[in-house]
């Protein structure tokens, strides 16, 4: 039998009792939920800074073990060795970012040892072209 959600029960049948009324639908608010909402509201926008690859020449962006973004730039052209890289967003937080221009394992100041850039052959790029294409300007903190 289909029953409307707002229906209430009344009366009783033999040997059975039923309560009348509705359950409360008011959400429970905890102090932790309120604290998280407050922190998100007052957090500076740059706390959410990120590097978002995009476009035809999008590089690979990974995160190192200590949380620093590592950009494996695109393969450089064979003649001029220029690596062209396009981004939807290019914002760098206080922790910095690594633009990986090494074909082999290297010790980076921000992250320690990192793997070589898989986009490269035996040579690195002589120049990098970084082209952010976004409606908001790039930001650093």
Automatic annotation (TrEMBL):
Annotated Polar residues bias: 119-130
Signal peptide: none
InterPro entries: FhaB/CdiA-like_TPS, Pectin_lyas_fold, Pectin_lyase_fold/virulence
Coiled coil: none
Region (Disordered) residue spans: 1-28, 119-141
Domain Filamentous haemagglutinin FhaB/tRNA nuclease CdiA-like TPS: 49-107
Listed name of the protein: Polymorphic membrane protein, filamentous haemagglutinin/adhesin
Source organism per UniProt: Paraburkholderia phymatum (strain DSM 17167 / CIP 108236 / LMG 21445 / STM815) (Burkholderia phymatum)
């Amino acid at each position: 039998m289909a029953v409307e959600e707002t229906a209430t029960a009344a009366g009783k049948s033999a040997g059975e009792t039923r309560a009348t009324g509705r359950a409360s639908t008011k959400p429970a608010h905890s102090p932790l939920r309120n604290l998280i909402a407050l922190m998100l509201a007052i957090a500076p926008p740059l706390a959410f800074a990120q590097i978002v690859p995009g476009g035809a020449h999008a590089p690979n962006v990974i995160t190192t073990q200590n949380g620093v973004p590592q950009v494996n730039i695109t393969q450089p052209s064979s003649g001029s060795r220029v690596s062209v890289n396009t981004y939807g967003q290019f914002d760098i937080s206080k922790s910095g970012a690594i633009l990986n221009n090494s074909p082999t394992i290297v010790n980076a100041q921000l992250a320690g040892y990192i793997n070589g850039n898989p986009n490269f052959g035996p040579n690195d790029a002589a120049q990098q072209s970084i082209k952010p294409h976004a409606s908001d300007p790039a930001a650093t903190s």
